[in-house]
Records
---
Amino acid sequence: QVQLVESGGRLVQAGASLRLSCAASGGTFSSYGMGWFRQAPGKAREFVARIDMLGSGKWYADSVKGRFTISRDNAENLVFLQMNSLKPEDTGVYYCAAGHLSFNFKIWGQGTQVTVSS
């Protein structure tokens, strides 16, 4: 099965843009549905976006729709989350997740911290 490593998180000001990356290794990347989740301090982990195996189907949480874009590069085993117009409420640890032939996410990365200052 794949292993996931996120990168790209950092401290930014409100209104800025940031792109997160998730590198997969050890499996057939194109057979996994991929997703991004986030967890703010003191809150439960929440869904942000997901993308199907071919990259043609994408779904977003209402809170990020129109600002975030998920994409994937199956040749490079990467999934991205482009985040624009960031808000302080976007602050949290962002996790990449994979589900084999599905969106049943059982494989998780270690997370990358995104902090948006006002």
---
Amino acid sequence: QVQLVESGGGLVQAGGSLRLSCAVSGRTFSSPVMGWFRRAPGKEREFIASISRTGSTTIYADSVRGRFTISRDNAKNTMYLEMNSLKPEDTAVYYCAAGITGTDPTWGQGTQVTVSS
């Protein structure tokens, strides 16, 4: 069984940056595809970015492309989301997930990101 724990959220001013981490424990860090999602108040969960097992393939939502960067360090069993040029509309709870192309992905508990204007 895989467990995911996000960290790195917080309060930042618009235009600022944050780096989220997703630590993976339990079974080996073998999920072929992992990703980041977010849920803003009153909105549906939104896909942000995904990354392949080796990190060679990344996909981004239009809303974050060019501002956010997803990466993973398999030696450290950790995935990251570097967020730059943050906007108030980026305010949300951010979740990491493993096995997102399967039928039963594993989710972390989420970390709050708040961007003030």
---
Amino acid sequence: QVHLVESGGGLVQAGGSLRLSCAASGRTFSSYAMGWIRQAPGKEREFVANISQSGGSTYYADSVKGRFTIARDNDKNTVSLQMDSLRREDTAVYYCNAVRFGIRAYWGQGTQVTVSS
């Protein structure tokens, strides 16, 4: 069992930055790949980024590549998403998730990111 709690969302102007954090409970954190998914109002959930168990491999959606950076700290059981050059279309609820065998097994409650023009 992994319990995930996101933080760091908020309101930011276009072109600005935010850093999301996800704190995980449990002693098996390092056995999970971790990821971020977002959902904008009226839209389906969208993949944002994943990071491997060791942190050595990262994957990004084309829409955020070069602007967002995912990282993890296995000693602190945390994963972060640094979001730079934010755009209005990045407005969404962002969810942290723990991934095992390709399945997003655990989800946080989500944190709202709103980008204004």
